[in-house]
């Protein structure tokens, strides 16, 4: 019989019971050491599970075994009432399902209630991508701004060229070290999700931008710069938030849709597919664990083809 009272309680002030606290720490170690999740993912999962466990502890639950499906649904319902977006609720439900699955695997619960927890359906949205000429326009603006040799502008041009020229994630870009650059082969050694390493090629424009940045890097470097390839204005390793600001500013300056770095990744993948690359090659380029993730870019290409067809073909619409 479950010990938890599912009535309303102010769980924000709740202190976790020792067994719940121990389970939280164990799950965090599992994500970090066994699953090799990124720091960002670990923080998000830990925050979601902490919210659940505070909710449970405030209702008298002392151990993971006290958590049942009714409590999970009650907690998720509270997320809805708080006005969280569907995507946030879906992510939180996924975090909790991962936690309860881990608890069962560790023998902390006999039956996994998370298996029956349904999360909100998130509407599928096609990613925003630039047209090829729009991407070229952004790169031209970045190059023009770097002509005076200002170190930050030179760096920003290299950031844009690498993100679009390789399709890597912004976290991967910021993690690059000087030794990850292979000048002769024009490749980057990238550490992706789950600490999986891959080698990514880049083109001549990115090579030129990287060479210019390599020559200007000392203008920003300090004793704290270490081996980081890209640096912030204070000489530390570039932060992903700063990279997002750079991409947003330059896409706006180029009078194209304002993008985050992931938009350049979407654009790169779409343009490579439209250029004739096969899905497996694009999967390897992007570092996707599943081919299904890569396949969404085919939908983008089809959508763009449909738009062009509807605008150009004389028999695309009603006669």
Write a structural description.
This protein has 319 residues and is mostly helical. The chain folds into 2 domains: 11-116, DNA polymerase, domain 1, CATH 1.10.150.130; 132-312, Intergrase catalytic core (hpI Integrase, Chain A, Orthogonal Bundle), CATH 1.10.443.10. Helices cover 55% and strands 4% of the residues. The chain has 12 helices and 3 strands, in the order αααααααβββααααα. It has helices at 18-34, 39-58, 69-81, 86-105, 132-145, 151-166, 170-175, 204-216, 240-253, 261-274, 279-286, 291-312; strands spanning 181-182, 187-191, 197-201. It has a 3-stranded antiparallel sheet. α5 packs antiparallel against α6. Residues 5-13 have low confidence and may be disordered.
* Sequence of strands across the biggest β-sheet: 1-2-3
What is the domain tally?
2
Helix-residue proportion: 55-70%
Oligomeric state as shown: single chain
Q: Please give the number of β-strands.
A: 3
Which class of the largest domain in CATH terms?
Answer: Mainly Alpha
CATH architecture of the largest domain: Orthogonal Bundle
Distance between the termini: 68 Å
Overall pLDDT confidence: 85
Low-confidence segments, given as residue ranges, are 5-13
Backbone CA Rg = 24 Å
Determine the CATH topology of the largest domain: hpI Integrase, Chain A
Structural class: mainly alpha
**Strand/helix succession:** HHHHHHHEEEHHHHH
Please report which band the strand proportion falls in: under 5%, 5-15%, 15-25%, 25-35%, 35-45% or over 45%: under 5%
Shape: globular
| Largest sheet composition | 3 strands, antiparallel
CATH superfamily of the largest domain: Intergrase catalytic core
User: Given the structure, what is the number of helices?
Assistant: 12
